[in-house]
Amino acid sequence: MEHFALLKMLHGVAGVLLFVAFFALAGLCWRARPRPAGAAPAGAETEADAAGPEPAAPDAEGAIAEGAEAEAPARASPWPALCAVLLLLCLIALPVSGWWLAHLAGWPLGQIWLLGSSLLFLPGAVCGLWLAARVAGRRRKSLWFSLVLALLGLACLATTLWLMVAKPV
């Protein structure tokens, strides 16, 4: 296969994966939103189910009775870290492959659509990395700030995508 066509296809796949990672991070942010005090977690049918099994009470000597199940430690989800790694890989690969494509096609880097897309890619990347840090760090203080980061980053990257596809002169 010709190098230009292969590189163009890989550049497109990286662009799609970038949007997938962004939408996944926004979804994880929405899913991690704080719930009202009396609300049960998603999937719980009753308050007793939401609270989980009662821990076994220790006897007089401080030992837990035989057959009582100890609580398993809560495991963190790997999805925020995987989305952050995918986002970071795409954010590194896209400018490199984009420059290489422009070089192979013979486009001067001073064209308005190339400069504009490069300038919009930077705030989109910063918003994406900041959102990934907030979701991976499990900061649940401000859902709205995280959603604004997601929307601003998506708007910047969608405009960059439009400039790359349309190539307005």
Commentary on this structure:
The protein has 169 residues and is mostly helical. 65% of the residues lie in helices and 0% in strands. The protein contains five helices and no strands. It has helices at residues 3-31, 47-51, 79-105, 112-136, 143-166. Helix 1 packs antiparallel against helix 3 (79-105) and helix 4 packs antiparallel against helix 5 (143-166). The mean pLDDT is 81.
Based on the model shown, name its key terms:
0% strand, mainly alpha, 5 helices, 169 residues
Kindly summarize this structure in a few lines.
The chain is mostly helical.
Order of helices and strands: HHHHH
Task: Tell me the fraction of residues in β-strands, as a range.
Answer: under 5%
Task: Give the total of beta strands.
Answer: 0
Relative helix content:
55-70%
The SS-based structural class is mainly alpha
C-alpha end-to-end distance: 30 Å
Largest sheet: none
Shape: elongated
Chain oligomer state = single chain
The total of helices stands at 5
| Overall mean pLDDT | 81
Low-pLDDT ranges: none
Radius of gyration: 23 Å
SSE blueprint:
Layout lengths: L2 H29 L15 H5 L27 H27 L6 H25 L6 H24 L3
Helix pairs in contact: 1-3, 1-4, 1-5, 3-4, 4-5
